[in-house]
Amino acid sequence: MARLVEIRNLAVTFDGQPALRGVDLDIAPGEAVGLVGESGCGKSVTWLAALGLLPAKARVTGSVRLGGAELLGAPAATLDRVRGGRVAMIFQDPASSLNPVHRIGRQIAEALALHRGITGATARAEAKRLLDQVGIPDAARRLDAYPHELSGGQNQRVMIAIALAGRPELLVADEPTTALDVTIQAQILELLAALRRELGMALVLISHDLGVVAESCERVCVMYAGRIVEEAPVARLFAAPTHPYTQGLLGALPPLHGPRRPLSAIPGGVPEPWAMPPGCAFAPRCPHAAEACAVTLPAVVVLPGGHRAACLRALPGFGSDERAAA
Amino acid sequence: MLRFLFFRLLRAAVTIVMVVSFAFVVLRLSGDPAQIIMGADAPPEAVDAFRAAWGLDQPLWRQYFHYFGAILSGDLGRSMRDGRDAILLVVERIPATLALTLPALAIKLGLGIPAGVYAALHRNSWADRLVMLLAVAGFTVPSFVLGLLLVLLFAVQLGWLPSGGQESWRHGILPMLTLGIGGAAVLARFTRSAMLEVLGQPYIRTASAKGVPWRAVVWGHALPNAAIPTVTIVGFMVGSLIAGAVVVESVFSWPGVGRLLVVAVANRDLAVVQCVLLLVAATMVTANLVVDLLYGLLDPRLRNQPRAAGAH
Question: N or C: at which end does chain B have fewer Cβ atoms within 10 angstroms?
């Protein structure tokens, strides 16, 4: 399968503190991939780094290839064409992600002018079409509205319209529903799924909500402390989680069927960036941690069915009964 | 909108009345104009005659109502020293003051805003540190000290420029610089923090994420937002065009409104002092009003709720 995006060994440090510690991730054209993990695990940083959107103090190393062309260290003009043109990104808080002093129409038209060279009345017509497409009622009148005159859900639809303006091959949605009401969340996720089918673009959905990812994605990557610790097709990840962190996340979800049980929380907290353990970052909280876990950084183990996990217990012959049972 | 304007104008009028009333009372309580103008050894009959002639022998409340009655009919009183209309005395000094304060305002805007923006865009660079060092120095040094320092350097040591007076345009350079540098320093600091605040906002990241080149992000997205808080301080500077040069005019013997005020206060020339204060209050209040209206223009969020804009 030809790859749209290839991320290799991507690492980011802020003032010497590691935020991302070697991420490998591939995105195929048209694919929907979920990126889950707790706040601060590096989900957003991965894509902000890939698109060169981190502040100057961030040190980024590794490789990010889009259609075979390297993005890290690419000239600003190249990145400006990629951003919004080939890879678009939408963010968590739609109300503050739109410029408060510019009208909606102008903010969409700006992207149209940059990536498709459309201006004037044509741009306005296209902006209206985009607002229609993302389901904003009375689009023609809304073009002249300011962000503060719209609701959070409508603003997120506007963000999506801006993202679609450049006809991107990949849309990165960074917690697109976290700041919205539950009913609106479902609408936005449905809209994203429908647009992806319609336009054939790839989607990366960043979320801390496993449920959101399960509904909208084909493949899930679980991140912990700046690394991807497990990656699998959605159904397989939920059926047979291999990494103890993933198992912990799933154990913390309330079951919809069967008898009620107390939710299990993962004890302890995420290690601070300046006190990263030398071995597996999850070892201090892991119920199955062995001595080796504290000293060896676990390599990624490739399992059948497109399943990968960065855990020593996933190695054949490590004596993991649970894995055999799974 | 009209309702908003009406209430703002009403508030402006109340402010002016309060300033003028306060000045009226304080000036009359703090010294006897008759005694000061006639001299300490003037015969008592002459002093009494002076008082009677200017109405100073009346009770304070009667003087006050008489004064306001006159203002409302357009009479701002006459100078007790030479009997000329106070308003004429003040108005003929305005061009001299504006000749200093307008170029100084240009220095403040032209130096302060670009320096602040540059410092914010290059945060923590040596240029940022230098701008901030100069800005802190610029606004912590009082204008009379800065003025004297400039005189020492450019007039006394180097002999390039005159130290005071108004004979040629060269005489204006040092007072302009003194006024301009302090204001530019304030504005640079203010602009920098406004800009930093805006650059950290999510919509700036959105603009970059949709492929807007950085220069256009700064000009098209960051500056219009950073302008909103900056307008407040610029409005204050515009409001002090008339009266902002009292100290500097005195240091450089520049015959403007500020120096007239100092002399008139020393002489207890009541009508002149009150006339200057009325003018100062009026410019300040007008500038504030313009700032409030500008807010609505710059920030669409304030257009629908003008009362929030009026809360500043």
Answer: N
